[in-house]
Amino acid sequence: MADPDRVPEEPLVSPSDRGGLHHVFRERYLLRLLVRKELKARYQGSVLGLFWSYVNPAVRFLAYYLVIGLIFQMDRNMTNFPVHIFAGMVLTHYFTETFSSGTRSIIRNKRIIQKLPLPRELFPVSSMLVSLYHTFPQMVILLGAVLVVGWDPSWLNLFQGLLGFTIIGVFGMALALLFSAANVFFRDFQNIVGVFMIFVTWSAPMIYPYDRIQGLFGGTWAEQVYLANPIATSVILFQDLFWVPTVGPDAPYPAVVPDHMVERGLVVLAVCLLVLAIAQRVFTRLEGKFAERL
Amino acid sequence: MATSIVVENVSKRFTMQYTRTIKQMSIAVLRGEQLKDTFLAVDDVSFKVEQGESIGLMGLNGSGKSTLLKLISGVMTPDSGNVLTRGRIAGLIAAGAGFHQQLTGRENLYLNAAILGMSEAETKRKLDQIVDFADIGKFLDTPVGHYSSGMGARLGFAIAAHAESDIFLADEVLAVGDRPFKRKCIARMNEIKKEGRTLFYVSHAPGSVRKMCDRALVLVDGRLGFDGPVDEGIHFLKYDDSDDDDGPDQDDDDLGADI
Ligand SMILES: Nc1ncnc2c1ncn2[C@@H]1O[C@H](COP(=O)(O)OP(=O)(O)O)[C@@H](O)[C@H]1O
Ligand SMILES: [Mg+2]
Fold it and tell me: Would you say A189 and A183 are in contact if contact means Cβ atoms under 8 Å apart?
């Protein structure tokens, strides 16, 4: 190997240029190992392992169903109310996990960041992938549930569901990038996330039906504001796939969902992509100081 | 010969931030306390390194050596001036960075190698070499959390020392590990040097710098105080007073002093 005249072919470049989010997906092998590490670390020493990631959503589902459904009798005049809650929860759980573990991801990996010039977006992205991994089995349970109650989705429904899933993924990633960077400078940001979670649960129709909102604000600007929220948009789109086709046109209580959801969804997706691009810019700005501030 | 590293009027200013939360910050403002303080850790440093040179970077504690290395590796960005490098960079500033206590040595090895830019194939090819070098034997498949600190450091060093690179940075690497291991490290760094890689070696041990390097840089409070032949550099630092006997044990004492 001795080669005293070795000259690398690469040009002289600035070593701190790491190139952004798209660069992360070129590091697929590393990303895979990071995801595996995070999964393994999370379940180390717990006998039930992955099972625990169902306990939280399952208990919340039961609590909402029992209290809101049975005690407040929401499921009296609503068809397949449990499916309605569960579909919404699968989606919002994916979002909150991406957001909260993504926000802490930079600090959690500070030993690597202080020493190695990796694309730092790797860490929030791998948090998102871990959340995605956790969402998969919940989707399987959801699918089982809708098949039991009878489910006949159209291609349009399928598209709506995918659109909803994409919106919440992009939005969660954008917030995770922003907050993970901000959290390096002020640790308050990881606490703001907790407050945000409460908002997430109540800002979308999952434990209450959309017709309540329509009854309150129908036709006013308040309804438009409600629907402009990416979380509400994606949850409704997701209900369009999983809940609406289980209700059917001649059910005693038909499914009420807003009109033009595909158009709304596409606009919201475009806005979320823009937010993601801005988040990436901010992240790049701030990451220059990560190594010294951690 | 090609230029390997260019450092041009590089400065790095650190902020000593006294507050970590908005609450602390508000209290400090109300009390009229200082929120932050800045100072130059690297102050207008310029030099050029040709491919294959081995540089000994010396200076007292806090003179900015590690910071300069981080600027070269790209972990930190300079506030002014330019840093340019050619080719892949590896080094022992990162030995064991990101070891996860709950993963086994093998799992950590793969992850750490990937973090250093090694592909799966490259890691597999070098696995035996790395494990041999680290000499952790049957502990390879036990969690790193159960390792002694020396073992963890050895594994980290072994991985970094086997990563492909054109530039190799080593920051006070010999502060950990026992004597046989230190000797192995020195031998490995000599190999790296022979391969024609650019070597950047931070050390307090004049003996090992003298053996390994053909040029010395000395930092004094963040400024480049000296750039030239190793012997003069050591003299500049006045490290050579205690270093005049050439007894048979000299070799080991050099290593021991690298803390
Ligand atoms: N992240 C940081 N934030 C603020 N000050 C720092 C940081 N890292 C290092 N310093 C300070 O910068 C100076 C130079 O540090 P360093 O480069 O580690 O010195 P050396 O490696 O030569 O001992 C020291 O005074 C150190 O306290
Ligand atoms: Mg140092």
Answer: yes
Q: Is residue B192 part of a domain?
A: yes
> What pLDDT is attached to residue A181?
95
Place of tokens 């969402």: A135
B56 is a domain residue: yes
**Are B96 and A115 in contact, with CB atoms under 8 Å apart?**
no
- B14 neighbourhood in chain A, CB within 8 Å: 292
B88 Cβ under 8 Å from any chain A Cβ: yes
Residue B15 lies in a domain: no
Compute the distance between CA of residue A88 and CA of residue A279 in angstroms, rounded to an integer.
26
Q: Find the CB nearest B84 among A13, A289, A292.
A: A13
pLDDT band at B171 (very low <50, low <70, confident <90, very high): confident
Exposure string (b/e) for B91-108, b if CB count within 10 Å is 16 or more? bbbbbbbbbbebbbbbbb
Below-70 pLDDT ranges, chain A: 1-5, 19, 44-49
Interior angle at CA B18, CA B95 and CA A120, nearest 5: 40
Counting the structural domains of chain B, the total is 1
User: Distance from A203 to chain B by nearest Cα, in Å?
Assistant: 27
**Residue in the block written with tokens 């990633």:** A173
Question: How many angstroms separate the CA atoms of A176 and B165, rounded?
Answer: 33
| Structural domain of B142 | 51-253
